[in-house]
Amino acid sequence: MAFASYRPSKLEVEVDSQRLVGRPTIVHVNLGRFCGGGVVFTPEAELDDGLFDVFVLGELTRLQAILRWKAVTTGEGRTLPDAAILRGSRVVVRGPAGRLLHADGEVRRFVGTEVRARLVPDALEVVHAAPVLVTGHAHP
User: How many angstroms separate the CA atoms of 61 and 93, rounded?
Assistant: First the structure.
């Protein structure tokens, strides 16, 4: 069980010109409000604003993590004194090589000592259907 053996590593999180250094329990990079299973780390995130929303939760003991988990995953984590949400179009997380991370639900490891993400305007066109209004009469 990963939770039982987890030890926060020293990380540097850089979002545009903002920089945090510490041993965070969570660094979560979002484009939108929701991630897997309806979890909400960044409730103000907008898919179309051209920015990443990066939730950083400071180092916690296992007990603190358990006690705060509901707040963290329902969008209330932003109100915790040891949490921050940074917004920007470029994210760099620096840490020890081989450190575990999750990428789109998949467990991965750092290749080298940093992970980079950047938004490229107009690089991907997302097509979605317009809402459909269904009207009519029910048949007996």
Answer: 22
Angle at 46 between CA 103 and CA 73, to 5 degrees: 55
DSSP-H helix ranges across 1-140: 2-5, 62-73
d(CA 118, CA 86): 14
Burial of 8 (0-12, 13-18, 19+ CB in 10 A): middle
Pick the CATH number of 2-118 from 3.90.1150.10, 2.30.30.240, 2.60.200.40, 1.10.357.10: 2.60.200.40
3: its two tokens: 């939770």
SS3 81: coil
CA 40 – CA 114 distance, rounded (Å): 25
Positions of the chain with pLDDT lower than 50, given as ranges: 139
Token output for 85: 């949400």
